Please model this.
Amino acid sequence: MRKRLLFFILLGWVLLIVGDRVDELRVYQGAQISMYAIALSSIVLLTGYSGQVSLGNGAMMAVGGYAAALTLNNLQTPIWFAFLMSILASAIFGALLGASAARLSGPYLAGTTLALAVGLPALANQFGFLGGEQGILFDVGFPPERFGEEFSQYKWFFWIATFIALISLFITSNILHSRFGRTWRAIRGNSLAAELAGVHSARMKVLAFTISSAIAGLAGAVLAMTISLVSPGAYTLSLSFALVTGAVLAGISSLPGVMLGAVILVAIPEFADVVAHRLGDSEKVITHLPGLIVSVLLILSVIFTPNGPGENLRKHRKKKSAH
Model:
C-alpha cells in the first residue's frame, strides 16, 4: 500500500508539472482523461472483478452529475461537498439497482442496464427542477487568486479533475487488492464454488454495484464540471458505449489500463475532426464519425484481443518476467 501511495503522489506531481507546460486545449483534454479514467475504473471493478456486465454507466454518471449540480446550486456548498453528494447519491441508487439485479446475469443484466442508460437521462425532461433539455449550470467558480492571473479556468478544471482521479484510483486500487477484490474474482470465476466456500454471492454483487455506481457518479460530476453543465445530452447512450469500448481496450480487469482507455476516448473526437476536415467538413461526417470509430474499435477489440490490448500486454510482461 505504501508503494502505491508513493506512486500516486509521484504521478500527481508529474501531471501537475506537465499541466503547467502545455496549452489550454491539452490541459482541458487532461481533465477529460481524468474523468474517463474514473469512469473506466468503475467498469473494471464491476465487470472485470465481479463479472457483472453493465451498459448503464452513463446513467450512473448522470445521477452523480445531477446530484452534484443540485447540491451546488441549491445549497451553495463548497465544491468538495457537491462531489461528495454525487458519490453518496449514485451509491444509494446503485445499491437499489444492484439489489434488484442481483439475480440477473449475462445478457439479462446487460439488457436491464441498457434500458436504464436509455431511459434515465431522458427523465430529466419530465422534471422542471432538473432543467429539462437545457439542463442546469455547474459552476465551480474561478481559481484562487493566489495561483496568479496566468492560472486559467481550464487549468483549475485540470487540477481538480486530476486530484479527484488520483484519489479515486488509489482507493479503487486498494479495494481491488483487498479481500473484497479477491472475493469478487472468486465469484466471477465460479459463483457456485464461492457459495460453497461461505461467500454470500448476491450480497457481494450488490456491494460491487454500489461501489462501482459511486465511482461512476463521481466521474459524472467531474464531467459536469468540465463542461459547466448537467443535461440529458451530456449522458447519452453513446457515452455508455464509449465507456465499454474504453474498458475493453484498456483490459477489462486491468486498473492501470484505464489510462490507456481514457487517452483513446479523448483522442477519438480529435482524430474524427481531422478525418472530417479532409472529407470536406461534412456535418453528417462530423456528427456520426466518432460513434462509428468507437463501434469499429469495439468490434476489432472483441475479435482480435478479447481481453483488451492493455490486458494482453500485462500478461505478456508477466510471462516474460517468469522466464
